[in-house]
Amino acid sequence: MHKNIDCDYWSEANVFEPPFPNPIPGEGFPTFHIELDDFEFCFASLDEISHCIEVLSQKLLPRSIDLSRQRGTVKGPNTHWLSRLPASVKSWKYREKAVKYMQNALQKFQQEIENR
User: Fold this and answer.
1) Interatomic CA distance for residues 116 and 23, integer angstroms
2) I need a surface site. Which of 18, 24, 44, 80 has the fewest CB within 10 A?
3) Is 102 exposed, middle or buried (0-12, 13-18, 19+ CB in 10 A)?
4) Cα–Cα dist 27/116, whole Å
5) Pick from 1, 110, 19: nearest CA to 55
6) Taking Cα atoms as reference points, which of 21, 17, 10, 71 lies closest to residue 43?
7) Helix spans in 1-116 (H)
């Protein structure tokens, strides 16, 4: 989701698009956890949650290699997070429920950040 701009390797980058959130003084970088039916989604930003909602809300899931190509980071078929999700999380029944749950969680996270 956060594409490295200033170098070829994500681990060495300092500039990302969209930018990562700033650290919270005294607490470090925020992380956002959404748990549903014994599966936990972990995110580094609200942009990542939005992207996940966008991908999971599609009735037919895109191929992870295509998602990697869209970012310009094709290094193999397993370079996108979608390829690592368990099959039970990829079912349409689960995703319908998860997308609604994530949308509500995203709104709550946004409100929390605005109220700081």
Assistant:
1) 13
2) 24
3) buried
4) 13
5) 1
6) 21
7) 46-56, 64-71, 87-90, 92-114
Please write the tens of the pLDDT for every residue from 71-108. Answer: 666 566 677 788 889 999 999 999 999 999 999 999 99
**Can you give the residue ranges of every domain in the chain?**
3-114
Rounded CA-CA distance 42/44 in Å is 7
Q: Comparing C-alpha atoms, which of 18, 9, 11, 79 is closest to residue 49?
A: 18
Tell me the C-alpha distance between 78 and 74, whole Å: 9
Give this prediction's pTM.
0.79
Q: Give the position of tokens 């990697």.
A: 68
Distance CA 89, CA 14 (A): 32
DSSP conformational letter for 77: T
Instruction: Retrieve residue 79's tokens.
Output: 């370079």
Interval 25-63: pLDDT, tens: 788 878 999 999 999 999 989 999 999 999 999 999 998
The C-alpha atoms of residue 33 and residue 54 are separated, in whole angstroms, by: 17
